[in-house]
Inverse folding.
């Protein structure tokens, strides 16, 4: 069942989203060659907890960290480690969630590490833009799959593929709520979008095949062909005539 959030709930989710965005900002500032993903995890944990929230991911179904840190061919759910060190030329997808007063914010961004080649730069740029291409259709009376279709159409125009095994999702007082939000499909299908719906839209885009596999840790997801992947996500609320991004801090500008 898709829940419609009250103004009170949306207000709390805005604060959860703001804290999530501040954690992203702090992590971004620390990303450079030689830094471990465990260090990035600690930074996010400290920001989230210092603002009176708790990391949404920590211990969620047993997940052992506060962020997901996914490098190059790792699509999602990369577990931070002292032994995983960022190298010049890497791309790293950081996924962060914060829970404030029982409500969640969820956001992912892919970052460049040092000097990154043009192929990887374009993948990151296209993935980010694909999210906003989808959001053009995030308004009342559209169908959910209108967002999905716009993402896939944009991604495919660059010869990339969208991951099909994992999707976006509804979000609120649970990290994952209905509906499931694929990043592919035909338009005009699925639930009708209504004011007060809160959704986490998150394209995961691969240079090569859309196929992925899960490693033996039961978390880390990699591309089947070991080619690079990028990930972008924002939590939004459907408004009277469009959408509002909840996972942002005051004055944040989006580079799209």
């Amino acid at each position: 069942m898709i829940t419609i959030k009250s103004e009170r709930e949306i207000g709390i989710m805005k604060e959860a989203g703001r804290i999530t965005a501040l954690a992203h900002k702090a992590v971004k500032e620390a990303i450079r060659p030689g830094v471990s993903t465990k260090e990035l995890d600690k930074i996010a944990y400290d920001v989230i907890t210092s603002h009176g929230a708790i990391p949404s991911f920590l211990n969620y179904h047993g997940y052992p960290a506060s962020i997901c840190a996914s490098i190059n061919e790792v699509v999602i759910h990369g577990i931070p480690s002292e032994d995983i060190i960022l190298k010049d030329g890497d791309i790293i997808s950081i996924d962060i969630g914060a829970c404030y007063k029982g409500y969640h914010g969820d956001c992912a961004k892919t970052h460049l590490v040092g000097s990154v080649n043009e192929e990887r730069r374009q993948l990151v740029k296209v993935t980010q833009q694909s999210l906003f291409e989808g959001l053009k259709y995030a308004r009342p009376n559209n169908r959910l799959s209108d967002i999905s279709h716009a993402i896939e159409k944009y991604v495919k125009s660059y010869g990339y593929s969208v991951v099909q095994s994992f999707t976006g999702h509804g979000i609120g007082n649970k990290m994952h709520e209905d509906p499931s939000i694929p990043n592919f499909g035909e338009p005009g299908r699925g639930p009708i979008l209504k004011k007060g719906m809160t959704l986490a839209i998150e394209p995961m885009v691969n240079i090569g095949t859309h196929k992925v596999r899960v490693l033996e840790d039961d978390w880390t997801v990699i591309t089947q062909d070991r080619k690079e992947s990028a990930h972008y996500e924002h939590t939004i609320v459907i408004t009277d005539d469009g959408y509002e991004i909840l996972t942002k801090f005051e004055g944040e500008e989006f580079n799209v």
Summary: Residues 7-245 form a domain with the Creatine Amidinohydrolase fold (CATH 3.90.230.10). The chain has a mean pLDDT of 97. The chain has one domain: 7-245.
